[in-house]
Amino acid sequence: MAFKLSNKSLSVSIKTSLLTSVFVLLAILGGVSIMTKMRLSALQDTLEQIGRTQLPRLRTLGEINLTVARIRSASYRLALTGTPEQRAQVEASFHARNEELQRLMERYQESINGHKALQLAFDQFVDKWKRYGKFQAQILDPEMAKDRVKFSHLVNVETSELFQGVLDIINHGIALANHQADADVARATADSAFFSTLLWGLNTVSIMIGLATLVFVIRDVSVPIHRITQSMEAISKGELATPIPYAERSNELGMMARALVVFKKSLTENDRLNAATRTLSELSEWLQSAKSEPELYGMISSVLGRLMPECKGSLFIYANSRDTLEVAAEWNGQARTQSIHPEDCWSLRRGHAYVHGTSEIEFHCDHVHGDINDNYCCIPILAHGETVGLLHLEYTLDVTETAEEAKARFADRVRLGLACAEHLSIAIANMKLREGLRDQSVRDVLTGLNNRRYLLETARRELLRAERLKHPVSLLMLDVDHFKSFNDNHGHDAGDAVLRHVGEAMRQLFAEDGIPCRFGGEEFAVLLPNTTLAAAALRAEELRGRIEALSIRYADGVLPRVTISAGVATTPHGGNTFTELHRTADEALYRAKHNGRNRVELQDGAPSPASEATDAQVAALAAVAEAASSSAQSGESDGSQAA
Question: Distance between CA 112 and CA 108 in Å, rounded?
């Protein structure tokens, strides 16, 4: 029926349901009217039939019964009348009664109209009446009446039973006529009951159709509209997580629900973009607070991964050589390539953002593989008019999105990516500028080692950590022996060459576990976190051996042998602050110089590691010195060129 067509057009469903209900109800009302008329007509026809046939028939039978009785009474009077005048009068009445009976019988015969039971009863009546008529001639005989005994026997015995049979047949006919009337009434009553039942059935069907229509209107119209209205009110209040019902239907309510879903998605996207804008503003502040490039790139990966969860992204930064770009940050998946050439990307070649998947004329970048989604974009990171990197975004399609929705969302992500690129360019440029300035402020230009400022900052941090973790920290203070003579005898360039070779040896030896620094002039320092005094002394002795094994070529010759003197101090006995530790190590350094130079002295006059070294340790130190000597010889030419 119409009320079940909930997935068809709602207006058509409502129209069909209401029209069907109206037509059915009109048909039921018409049927009820017709059946009521039929019922009344049936009753009226039955009554008319009874009045037209049964009542006259019963009346005729009653008159026949009365006439028969009168004829018998007249025959008695005629037989008992003595005078001729009275006899003639009674005889006239008798014949009149017989003629009347004959007319009644003919009329009754006509009213039977083929009714077999009544016809049979009438035939029996006629037969018995004829038989009674034979005895009636004897009753009418005056001579018979004179013999009272014989007449009484004839009347009361011989004809009484026969006459009673005539009356019984008449009564039987009356009973048959009454039965026929009762049957007609019963049939009319049955028809009335049938029509009444049918009428109740139609009324029930009408009520069910009305209820079904009401259920349809409530279930498929009123309730959905109410629920959709509630969802609209909730969304208008900012409750964007509210579910939208009936979006799967194909009727007008489904269209309304889907339109509301699109509107909700639009609001969600706008809210998300607003949140993204606020996040970018906060991100700018955080990025400006980053202390190093690794921390900066880590923050970028974390924030952009949450900001654009449907996009896989990579941040490429130019290498120092400016010939390649290397991955500095990646989110929502690993980058497809770890480095690219500037010529591999259309955005870098054209100098502006390149969005793929939105234009009729477009080409894949060479750094993009064939299995990538067509919706991707490359955005150059520009800082102070110079390209410093590339932001690459790949949009991941959602299976629930249509092509138009995916294109619209990708366009939003591109706009968000452009905004991100602006913030990133400023942060990266500032970080590189800060890194450059910091590198200039904490690095010694001549040796490439960190300078005294960096040592002081790092020492304070490491001493605090060591105090918290109960770990030792050692400090090596060393000085190039007779450095002034190098400058006086060979010139300052030769002195610079010596300092560079010493710095290179320190950088190689303490590349992983120490912090070598140029403290000032020919004085150097090495900070060794989590290192005991004995271990620090061995490392100092190893460094002394390597430097002693150096062969430094300068100009056309080889400079004299370079040696160092070193002093070692360790917390907590050597001091708990850098000032105390430096003073202790410096005192040990002065003792080393006083005791002949080219040696290592420990804090508080502890024995030198060379005097207590085992044979294995001495052999190890000799091997280290030999390796350092061969390394220095291989780098002699480089040293002379640097000089």
Answer: 6
pLDDT for 633 beyond 50: no
Q: What pLDDT does 567 receive?
A: 95
- Please measure the distance between the N-terminal and C-terminal CA atoms of the chain and give it in whole angstroms: 103
Residues sharing a CB contact under 8 Å with residue 500, sequence separation 6 or more, in sequence order? 446, 447, 448, 639, 642
For tokens 């904490």, the residue is 442
Planar angle of CA 241, 245, 247, nearest 5 degrees: 110
Mean pLDDT of 21-32: 70
Contacts of 227 (CB under 8 A, 6+ apart): 245, 246
Q: Identify the burial level of 267 via C-beta atoms within 10 angstroms of its C-beta, where 0-12 means exposed, 13-18 middle and 19 or more buried.
A: middle
Distances (CA, A) of 160 to 101, 132, 205: 19, 9, 66
Considering only residues 62 and 378, tell me which one the structure prediction assigns the higher pLDDT: 378
Specify which residues 380 forms β-bridges with. Answer: 390
Phi/psi region, residue 355 (left: phi>0; alpha: psi -120 to 50; beta: rest), is beta
**Four-residue CA torsion sign, 365, 368, 369, 375:** negative
Query: Is there a contact between 243 and 261 (Cβ–Cβ < 8 Å)?
Result: no
> What pLDDT shows up at residue 3?
38
CA gap 643, 487 in Å, rounded:
13
Which candidate, 541, 471, 501, 469, places its Cα nearest to that of 636? Answer: 501
Catalytic residues: 522
CA distance 85 to 67: 24
Report field, pTM of the whole predicted structure over 0.70: no
Between CA 19 and CA 24, with CA 23 as vertex, the angle to 5 degrees is 115
- Per DSSP, the three-state class of 367 is coil
Per-residue buried b or exposed e for 182-199, using 16+ beta carbons within 10 Å of the residue's own CB: eebbeebeebbeebeeeb
- Domains of the chain are 43-202 (1.20.120), 272-437 (3.30.450.40), 452-642 (3.30.70.270)
Radius of gyration (Cα) for the chain, nearest Å? 66
- Name the token pair of 409: 């969302």
What sections of 81-159 are H helices per DSSP? 84-112, 116-140, 142-146, 148-153
Q: Is the peptide bond before 572 cis (omega within 30 degrees of 0)?
A: yes
| Axis crossing angle, helix 160-217 with helix 116-140, rounded to the nearest 10 | 160
